[in-house]
Amino acid sequence: MPVSFERDIRPLFRQIDIEHMNKHKVLLDNFAYMADPSNDHGNAQAVEDSLTNQSMPPGGPYWSSEELTLYRQWKSDGYLP
């Protein structure tokens, strides 16, 4: 089954993470923002980069390799809602 943002990815972001990143105009819980094709999906890539280099969420807990794999699969599956 393809990975869905609403079902699989959105629940990985804690409310505290969403609120923190909203201050920086990063809308973790907004599908249109996360999957925005206008900048070659740059928002999704920037979030992945932050998750991978453990600069997000600030102070952890950091995503597991399984969670990162799921996120990458969402991208590979075509950024499905």
Keywords:
globular, 0% strand, single chain, 5 helices, 81 residues
Structure description:
The chain is mainly alpha-helical. It has one domain (5-76). It is built from 5 helices and no strands. The chain has helices spanning 5-9, 15-22, 31-34, 42-52, 65-76. Helix 4 runs antiparallel to helix 5. The chain is globular. The two termini are 13 Å apart. The model has no long low-confidence stretch (mean pLDDT 96).
What would a concise description of this structure say?
The chain has five helices and no strands.
Total individual domains: 1
Taking all Cα atoms into account, the compactness measure Rg is 12 Å
Q: Terminal Cα separation, in Å?
A: 13 Å
Can you write the helix and strand succession as a string? HHHHH
Mean pLDDT: 96
**In one word, what is the shape?**
globular
Compute the number of strand runs. 0
Number of helices: 5
* Proportion of beta-strand residues: under 5%
What kind of oligomer do you see? Answer: single chain
Structural class, please?
mainly alpha
Low-confidence stretches: none
| Major beta sheet summary | none
The level of helicity is: 40-55%
Task: Please outline the helices and strands.
Blueprint: H1 5-9, H2 15-22, H3 31-34, H4 42-52, H5 65-76
Helix pairs in contact: 4-5
